[in-house]
């Protein structure tokens, strides 16, 4: 089993295969929920297509045996409109403009293979290679309990801790009914 994590830059077609609705008029976030959820579907698609055409890109893709299997959104926090305006996720020394990891998507048929670990490592390395000094995420504290797919899109505290992140502060945000944390990892 071959696993590779690559920046989404120049890989729009791979991103679109599972992140863009297939049916005309279909719904979905196209990973725009934190960027600008006010946009309609055509504008969301164009925005992300543009993001995938320029450095540093909007995130990373994981490939399993050459097939695109998942996605992780990672970019400078200042590029996420919803985070910058958030009343539930605290702003901590924002002058450093940390990179934010805001979502994970693993395609059906590829789940339960540990790919979120690969995506998180790849996101951190992409941020580092792009000059980030710090990366942060906002995962749920599941207390070791299983988290449903919908609530778990932000990752879990346990996942982030396994990859060198530390809890910084609780948030007023929840995913499902589960508390979320600001977690950080210094890269310098």
Plain-language structure description:
There is one protein chain. This protein is of the alpha+beta class. The chain has helices at 12-19, 33-36, 41-51, 81-84, 115-129, 157-162, and strands at 3-7, 59-64, 67-76, 99-106, 134-137, 166-175, 178-186. Strands 1-2-3-4-5-7-6 form a 7-stranded mixed β-sheet. Strand 2 and strand 3 form a beta hairpin. The model has no long low-confidence stretch (mean pLDDT 92).
Q: What's the β-strand tally?
A: 7
Structural class by SSE content: alpha+beta
* Ends apart, CA distance between termini: 32 Å
Q: Helix coverage percent of residues?
A: 25-40%
Mean pLDDT across every amino acid position: 92
Strand order of the largest sheet: 1-2-3-4-5-7-6
* Count of alpha and pi helical runs: 6
Q: Looking at the structure, what is the overall shape? A: globular
Order of helices and strands: EHHHEEHEHEHEE
Task: Give the key terms.
26% helix; alpha+beta; globular; 188 residues; 28% strand; seven-stranded mixed β-sheet; 6 helices
Task: Give a short synopsis of this structure.
With 188 residues, the protein is α+β, with helices and mostly antiparallel strands. The chain contains 6 helices and 7 strands, in the order βαααββαβαβαββ.
């Amino acid at each position: 089993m071959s696993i590779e994590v690559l920046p989404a830059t120049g890989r729009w077609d791979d991103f679109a295969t599972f992140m863009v609705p297939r049916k005309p008029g279909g719904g979905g976030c196209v990973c725009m929920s934190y960027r600008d959820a006010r946009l309609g579907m055509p504008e969301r698609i164009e925005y992300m297509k543009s993001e995938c055409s320029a450095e540093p890109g909007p995130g990373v893709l994981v490939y399993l045996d050459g097939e695109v299997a998942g996605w992780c959104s990672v970019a400078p926090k200042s590029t996420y409109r919803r985070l910058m305006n958030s009343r539930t996720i605290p702003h901590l020394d924002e002058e450093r403009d940390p990179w934010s990891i805001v979502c994970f998507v693993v395609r059906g048929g590829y789940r339960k293979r540990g790919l979120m670990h690969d995506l998180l490592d790849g996101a951190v390395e992409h941020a580092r290679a792009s000059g980030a000094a710090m990366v942060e995420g906002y995962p749920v504290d599941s207390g070791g309990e299983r988290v449903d797919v919908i609530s778990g899109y932000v990752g879990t505290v346990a996942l982030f801790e396994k990859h060198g992140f530390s809890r910084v502060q609780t948030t007023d945000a929840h995913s499902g009914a589960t508390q979320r944390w600001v977690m950080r990892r210094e890269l310098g």
